[in-house]
Amino acid sequence: MLRSIKSLFVGSLVAMTMGSCWELEQEVLSGITQEQLNNNVTPELIEVLKQTAYSAVVGNWGSHGGLYSVLEVTADQLAIPQKGADWEDGGIWLRAHRHTWLSVDGPLNGSWQYPFTIVAECNLLLQQFPDLEELGAELRTLRALAYLWLIDTFGNVPIIRETDRGGSPAQNTREQVFQFIENSILENVDLLTRNNTRTNLNYWTAHMILAKLYLNAEVYTGTARWADAERILDVIINEGPYSLSPNFFSNFSANNSNSPENMFTLPYDANNAGGFNIHQMTYHYSSQLTFDLQEQPWNGYAALEEFYNSFEDGDTRKASLREGPQFESDGVTPIIDDSVEPADPDGPAINFTPNINMLAPNALRQAGTRINKWEIPVGQGPDLDNDFAIFRYADVLLMKAEAAWRQGNTAVALNFVNQVRERANAPALTTLNADLLLAERGRELFAEGHRRSDLIRFGRFNAPWWEKNASPAFRNLFPIPENQLQANPNLRQNPGY
Fold it and tell me: Minimal CA–CA distance to 89: which of 287, 275, 359?
């Protein structure tokens, strides 16, 4: 059997891997029957097969316009202010911030398609290789992760298994999706590797999926599962291979693949697995000079002032936001925005201010601090090399704290929260409440895709914040995109839309 494979064609199966991330040469197998493959399976082949599905996860997660963008811009830490004609985009990002989105808004359709693409890739492989038990367990766990995103964002979605054959799948209730995710993990977790495989799901990260599900169980089903969440988190804490990195920002460096804290990561590679371009999404056009970037940034995502002010002095995590006067890569020469007149209050010297004068239509071009969490090497192209951590051990500790606190065990909760705060050089808390817990999660997990879910769980998603009025509770779920309703007559729109 061949030992180095990148693409495999068997009938309708096309398995595409992610280039140098797995260092596999390209070779095509043809004229080989399914039986021959099943009888000659090697660990290398299994790795190739599973990366077909994992490549769908890497997909467009870290680029503008997909699920990640929707999760972040609908929450209370980031916005995309409209600067004249720049970032008007038909009003989709203004509506996202203000919770007035429409079922025809394109990013919502992308947020639907992203996890369902993962589901389809997993199901295709499960159909093609039904007898590979360990591969099947990992694929069903990966499919459960996709459904965790779906239950959180759309609620009532079709459960599509590998045994289903075409047609228009029936819509399931949120409770049924919850049970499907739970069963998928419980039935497969013991077959997963316990090796610390960061770019593949393993025994520990499967527990993380289940813990996330239980932590949000009251939102998804109406029944709280705090004790179950804590029990599952204890497995990771007491038996898993993870620990806090002494340096918070090492988890986000350009070479962060060996972080002891990052549990499940998307292995972006600027040359072979692009798609993570947070620096392009957030920085001012003229910030190209700060990092000698190969392309000009887009001047979009900016942090809300209230979030910026939530950091205490000395909290090292405050450097996740870039503020103040900006300089060229020599660190001395001020950056001048030549596109504005010197008399314009917006310039000409670039100075990122915590205050954003307005959301639209004439936000100042340099208003708002910028996402500075991931290292940007000098000379970087449009895509970053940094791995993106979907799950991180600091989140495990904060989830443990929350689950304990919600059951009345404040002493245990404080211990775990303060482990995270100590690493950030923040003073230990002596008391705990919902606001403190939510704020701590916000500071630690900023821009990592968790904030919307956290706000809903803490009952804050519908509250007013800067440039957003109070929103109705039905906005806790997104509408099923209009073109999905048209394509599948068995789908019914979520209430309120």
Answer: 359
